[in-house]
Each structure stands twice: as C-alpha cells, then as structure tokens.
Design brief:
alpha/beta, about 325 residues, five-stranded parallel β-sheet
Length: about 325
C-alpha cells in the first residue's frame, strides 16, 4: 500500500499575504516530503520480520511512521484551512460560542497558542472530541500529539518553514495572516463531518434493561446541596471489610439483609443505591427497592467512581 499525495485544497494565488513561493515550497518540500518519507518507512516496515527485529528498530520505525503520517494529515488540513475570506459564518460562530464562551474567546486562545509557538515549532489544532461532543484547541508538537479519538478540523502550522520565507522571525504577523485566510464555510463543513463520529460506547448492562441510574457527579451535588436524598452504600460485606472505608456522610447496609433495613427508608424521598463499581449488587438492590415502591436509582460507577471524582471518604 502506498500513500498518495493529495492536491492542495486552497487556491494558492488567492491567499492574502502569503506568497506563492512560500506555499509552493511548503506543499512540495514539507508536505510532499512527509508523504515520501512515510512511503519509505512503510516499505521498510513491510519488509521487517517482527519476530526477530530488534526493539530499537521497531521503536524507531513505528515512531517515525507516526510522525510522518500525522505530518501528512495535518499539512493536508492546514492547506484546506485557508483560502477563505476570514469572515466567520454564523453557524460556526455559534459552535465556538458554545465551547469557548465567545468567538473572541476562541480566537484569543487559538492565536495566543500560535504566538507562543513562535521561535519554537508545532501545530495548533482545533479538534472535535466525540466523547464530549465539543471542540478543544490543542498543541501537536512533533506532529505526534493528538487527542485520542479527536477529529482535527483546523490546523495552524507553526514550524518555521511555514512562514520564514515571507515573515522571517515575525511569527505573530504570520498567525494573524493565517487567521485572515481561514475558510470558514469549509471549517463548518468539517465540523459537521466530525459530528458524525459517535461518542465512545457507554457501559451497557442489558440484563438490567432501562433501570434508572444517576451519575456520581450528580449525586455529589445533590448531597452537597442538602437535597433530601437517601444515599446508601450496599457493597457486599467482603468488599467493605477489605477496603474499610466509606464515602463521607453515607451509611453502609448489608445487601444480604435488605428486607430488614428497607423498612427504615422513607418512600417520600428519593433513594440512591450503589455498590463497588455499579454493576450487579447495586442494580439488584435498586430493582428490589423499586418493586417495594421506592423511588430508587443506582449510582453509576459505584464506590470506585465516588473515589475517582475525589469524593471524600472516612474509615469504617
Ligand atoms: Fe509545515
């Protein structure tokens, strides 16, 4: 398999303040060089016997492959990022306002990141993160830092080869020029494409159907706000005796004795139940309580999730 060079997306002669000489050199030498290097690395990898290859050879080639593949992809995005009139369009402004409080807020951060790389090198990338369904500005140093699962939709090349021919060491002027050339309609199209990437799959416990659960962060807020809620730890006894700790302000109830303690609960206040990790015990207790007429939900992630969000605990 070979990686092919893609045509440059922007029309270089239309760019405002960036010379043909700069863009041609960048595309032909740096982008083209990345694709050529990638194919050469690929060829070496294909002829490598991984069962006998020394670790340093595998490390070196795989690391260089990552650098070259990201350099190829980010350069393609960089050229596709430009070619517009730099005038933000409303739907994209709305998205940036949602994720950065305002268009100016996004622009200030993105620009400052570019300025900060002046004299250094790396990429500034606006990336869609499917898990959160939102955008993040990120650095990509050495072409190889990317948010796992992120979809880059705008890239600013801050390697010196991207601006030195026209701007010398004046990286700030280059960043401002890039901003004036952003193709906003194309950016919004890439955002819409990125939104098609689904979030990572949630934990599914098919055996418990649509049993209502509540996020641990929400439970913490409910407790902190003094909301009337009965939160109960129902970890099995052997878990409790091993860990010997419990969330602050919570009582433990033995799941084996549910019929004994159920009567102590109030049916007029909601109940939140959790076990060690939010699997079977917590769900089964929730079902039993709901069948008895309580407004019960299980806390997702259980005691471990409580600790993972930094919830305080006490010794038992
Ligand atoms: Fe570049």
């Amino acid at each position: 398999m070979r990686y092919n060079v893609k045509p440059i997306h922007c029309r270089p002669w239309t760019l405002n303040g960036l010379s043909l000489k700069l863009i041609e050199s960048h595309y032909e030498n740096n982008y083209g060089g990345a694709v050529r290097r990638l194919n050469s690395i690929k060829q070496q990898l294909e002829s490598l016997d991984f069962t006998t290859a020394p670790a340093h050879v595998v490390n070196g080639l795989k690391r260089e492959e990552l650098v070259a593949i990201n350099s190829m992809l980010l350069h393609e995005l960089y050229f596709a990022s430009m070619g517009g009139d730099g005038q933000p369009i409303k739907p994209m402004v709305d998205v940036l306002t949602r994720d950065f409080a305002s268009l100016d807020g996004w622009r200030a951060e993105f620009r400052a990141m570019g300025y900060a790389l002046g004299g250094g090198s790396g990429w500034v990338v606006l990336t869609y993160v499917p898990r959160e369904r939102r955008l993040v500005n990120q650095y990509a140093a050495e072409h190889s830092q990317g948010i796992a699962s992120g979809v880059p939709i705008l890239a600013l090349d801050m390697y010196e080869h991207a601006y030195h021919i026209d701007f010398g060491a004046n990286a700030t002027a280059y960043v401002d020029t890039f901003m004036r050339n952003i193709d906003w309609p194309a950016l919004y199209q890439r955002y819409q494409d990125a939104c098609q990437v689904p979030a990572p799959r949630s934990l599914v416990q098919a055996e418990f159907g649509d049993l209502p659960g509540v996020d641990v962060e929400e439970v913490k807020v409910m407790m902190a706000s003094g909301q009337a809620v009965q939160v109960i730890d129902v970890r099995p006894r052997h878990f409790v005796s091993r860990q010997q700790e419990i969330a602050e302000g919570i009582e433990w109830r033995d799941p084996e004795q549910i019929q004994k303690w159920m009567g102590e609960l109030s049916k007029s206040e909601p109940v939140v139940v959790y076990c060690a990790y939010g699997f079977h015990i917590g769900c089964k207790m929730t079902i039993a309580l709901r069948e008895a007429g309580f407004d019960a939900k299980y806390m997702k992630g259980g005691h471990s999730a409580w600790k993972a969000i930094g919830g305080s605990t006490r010794r038992m």
